Amino acid sequence: xxxxxxxxxxxxxxxxxxxxxxxxxxxxxxxxxxxxxxxxxxxxxxxxxxxxxxxxxxxxxxxxxxxxxxxxxxxxxxxxxxxxxxxxxxxxxxxxxxxxxxxxxxxxxxxxxxxxxxxxxxxxxxxxxxxxxxxxxxxxxxxxxxxxxxxxxxxxxxxxxxxxxxxxxxxxxxxxxxxxxxxxxxxxxxxxxxxxxxxxxxxxxxxxxxxxxxxxxxxxxxxxxxxxxxxxxxxxxxxxxxxxxxxxxxxxxxxxxxxxxxxxxxxxxxxxxxxxxxxxxxxxxxxxxxxxxxxxxxxxxxxxxxxxxxxxxxxxxxxxxxxxxxxxxxxxxxxxxxxxxxxxxxxxxxxxxxxxxxxxxxxxxxxxxxxxxxxxxxxxxxxxxxxxxxxxxxxxxxxxxxxxxxxxxxxxxxxxxxxxxxxxx
Length: 425
What we know:
By secondary structure, the protein is α+β, with helices and mostly antiparallel strands. It is built from ten helices and 17 strands. The chain has two domains: 11-37 and 155-276 and 287-356, Glucose Oxidase, domain 3 (2-Layer Sandwich); 69-152 and 361-422, FAD/NAD(P)-binding domain. Helices cover 25% and strands 18% of the residues.
């Protein structure tokens, strides 16, 4: 659908990238150029988890035993420490100044699905977490579990952007109202056009250890063991999303930009989450620790050199009548080659523009309790037999992939665990 998905892509990617149309193919290469899957239904609309798991007809069919509370926040859990169970959840109206709470009692289980930031916050507000931190916030310790809020991981990206002819960028719809209307008409009429797709239809996954340090090119070829996707050592540590638009939100509106969005997807540095107060509506403190690990800086330099090399190759072979130029890059103002950039220049650029890809996880990770774990292999919080967590916070390690589908997998497994636990009751 985008301009470089045909002839330009073929010229651009002739550096021996394996091309895989099925990202989930079990025999596919570990590294290469991949087409991404989307949760789009047959009518061209986004099919969210809400639509997939709780459509209107399902909600109505279960209304006698299903209650959905909107406009509230979970403020803390009710815990029976002696019996080692969670007995309920306290909720309060969101945004209300009134100090009023209601309790929802649990007959069997409580399952927390508040995400990598919200789940550890709720545990700590309930007295589950590092005892010293809880005491500093005036919270009674119900269970000392030091792993809560630690090992926070995320994918971090830095955009390399080029300026293209206006007709080749999504930003054309910003500057031409008639073209935007035409795309809307195409979607309404026969579900085609730019409105049917997301911004990122393809991506590159690479293990940077397989990059030639002299030429910053991908060296393995067909049949090489480095492409075996079944080997853990071949897990990619770099993703480069191909985006026909700018990738810095709110910046450069109307400019026809194209982004190679390089992302560290196996960072070594881990952050943490702490309470800012006992107010459940106050955001907790998030300590990110981005690029504070020396290994992450090494991978970042490899990633930037490789991405800049790709960008230069694209500019040389794009075939556009008008020249393509770097717009946002460490050498955008100087015009120098990626080969002329030293480590300090690359580090400075990365620190100045690195962004969260919003794939946070691992803050209530599945691991042994003595190794900083918060949940066991049945997703149960240590110390409580009927309290589980089912979201990205339980990942033992951040996946080298977008986190939506893995979260669905966690939820499906949690449902199986619960059904098995109560099958004979």
